Amino acid sequence: LDLPQPELVEDEADVFITGTGLLNQWKWPTIDGLHNFKGVLLHTANWDDTFDPTDKSVAIIGAGSSGIQVVPALASKVKAMHHYVRGKTWISNQLSEDILKAGTSDNERTNFDYHESEKELWKADRRSYIEYRKSLEFRLQGQYEITRPDSLRHITARANYEKSMRERLKMKPEIIGKLIPDFPPLCKRLTPGPGYLEALTASHVELITQSIAHIDAEGITTSEGVRRPVDAIICATGFDTSPGQGFPIYGRDGVNLREKYAARPKTYLSLCTDNFPNFFQSLGPHAFQGAGNLLIMMEAIHKYMAKILRRLAYGNIRTIEPKQKQVESFTNYCDEYFQNTVYNADCVSWYKSVVSNISGEKTQRVTALWPGSSTHAVHALESVKWEDFNMETCDGNDFGWFGNGGTVAENGLNHVASLDGEEAAHIVEALTWYLNGTRYLHEPL
Ligand SMILES: Cc1cc2nc3c(=O)[nH]c(=O)nc-3n(C[C@H](O)[C@H](O)[C@H](O)COP(=O)(O)OP(=O)(O)OC[C@H]3O[C@@H](n4cnc5c(N)ncnc54)[C@H](O)[C@@H]3O)c2cc1C
At the top level of its lineage, which domain of life is listed (predicted)? Predict the structure, then answer.
């Protein structure tokens, strides 16, 4: 529904699935006086394309994934840039930098150009295309081992990131110590940020690590009492990712999912929870990935849901929900799992939130991430463990899934006049599909 005006609409369905995303409720930072500012005030997730930064003094607050992209994008245009950074951050090398450089036509551009000859080759030879993609994907999947702080890959990666950061900041060595973190890489989202560190070494770009005390109509004052006037403030301060955010969803006994998650986000494999029958969510708590391919995980989550929907559609099942014991088991497992990963280190990250632990004490827990690699997620979600679910039949008949002995296709024969036409072709297919894989005896298997 895309309603032009707010309107109360009542709707009904057998199943409710949310796909409302995780990184789209952008939020202003809570800084005293932020909205008293009379210049241009922007959030990176709500950009104004008419904003012209040319020759302006611009403050950029935040050095997360957005901040480190907006700094190099604007640095060459502005008169002065004040970059307010609350914490330190690892800046990695670009993944597959060698391939990227080889495929980029000039130094100014960081987007990738594929040559026509490559495209033609891949069109003609599917295997070489897949091999190329595998070579890229292999490097991405190889990041997972970096999440284990004692692994050789982690130790090597950390040393490489530090070496590269020192090299890229060598024109302004005084800021090196302000940027290289004490916590391990990947504890907070690791982003390459091409050009970010180089931009920070420019003479008109100032890195400010003192906290912001307040903002007035024309400028920003830090906790040390230094006031810097600016023409524009850009907040690269991220999204509301707290597990309790979002519109209320009520389950059995009127329990509000958001309140349940705000207390302790307990799910079964990230995609459903007990006492919320026929409710599923994409990118729920523990669905995200910190070192791998999120897309294949989301596909696996959706395929998993599709298998459940199929059972609801054809299996005489009215309601399905995960067993509370398995919801507890998955959530407790997540707590244990993250103890031995970089995510548990002392860093500020949207992967974490302050919620109850197993003993009911409020503490920082990793609540956004899947407890494992993305390939682990795909395997774990391959088949539905029906024994982990409680199901209610439509009519109380546990054998009702068996039907009445016939199939829809046979019944369809009563409704088509002749065996010509599209409808008839469907019926023929539905009654003879098992011949489609026919092979000759002399063919190799
Ligand atoms: C700066 C940034 C960089 C990223 N980089 C990467 C990357 O490199 N690789 C990667 O894999 N992922 C990346 N991500 C994450 C990726 O964008 C998300 O994981 C992905 O978009 C999730 O898809 P989705 O469809 O679940 O949610 P979304 O794309 O967020 O879509 C959710 C939709 O639901 C709508 N919606 C929300 N609430 C309501 C409501 N109440 N009523 C109606 N509609 C509603 C929203 O408006 C939105 O259209 C990045 C995200 C950000 C913000």
Answer: Eukaryota
In sequence order, the 6+-apart residues with CB closer than 8 A to the CB of 411 are none
Number of the ligand 1 atom closest to the C-alpha atom of 24:
30
Residue whose CA lies nearest to ligand 1 atom number 44: 20
Residue 65 beta carbon below 6 angstroms from any ligand 1 atom: yes
DSSP state of 328: H
Distance 18 CA to ligand 1 centre (A): 12
| CATH H-level, domain 34-235: superfamily | FAD/NAD(P)-binding domain (3.50.50.60)
Angle, helices 126-141/116-124, rounded to nearest 10 degrees? 110
Closest atom, ligand 1, to C-alpha of 288? 19
Residue 21 CB–ligand 1 contact under 6 Å: yes
- What is the C-alpha to C-alpha distance for residues 312 and 391, in angstroms, rounded to an integer? 10
Residue holding tokens 């389950």? 251
| 375-431 confidence digits (pLDDT tens) | 999 999 999 999 999 999 999 999 999 999 998 889 888 887 777 888 888 999 999
Angstrom distance (rounded) from CA 99 to CA 305: 37
Distance from the CA of 21 to the center of ligand 1, in angstroms?
Answer: 4
Q: Is 18 in the pocket of ligand 1 (CB under 6 A)?
A: no
Report whether pLDDT(17) > 80. yes
Q: How far is the CA of 23 from the centre of ligand 1 (A)?
A: 5
Write the residue with the smallest CA distance to atom 28 of ligand 1: 21
Over residues 201-218, mean pLDDT: 97
Sorting pLDDT into bands at 50, 70 and 90, what band is 111? low
Give the pair of three-digit tokens for residue 410.
């046979």
Multiple choice CATH, 260-400, 3.40.50.2300, 2.30.110.10, 3.30.70.270, 3.50.50.60: 3.50.50.60
**CA-closest residue to ligand 1 atom 13:** 294
Centroid of ligand 1 to alpha carbon of 357 (angstroms)? 28
DSSP, collapsed to helix, strand or coil, labels residue 56 as: coil
Lowest mean pLDDT among 41-45, 95-99, 309-313, 333-337: 95-99
Q: Residues 65-102: pLDDT tens digits? A: 999 999 999 999 999 999 999 989 999 877 777 777 77
Nearest residue CA, atom 31 of ligand 1? 21
* Model pLDDT for residues 216-274, shown as the tens digit of each residue: 999 999 999 999 999 999 999 999 988 888 999 999 999 999 999 999 999 999 999 99
**Residue 111, Cα to own-chain centre: how many angstroms?**
22
Distances (CA, A) of 155 to 27, 91, 143, 160: 35, 16, 12, 9
21: alpha, beta or left, given left = phi > 0 and alpha = psi -120 to 50? left
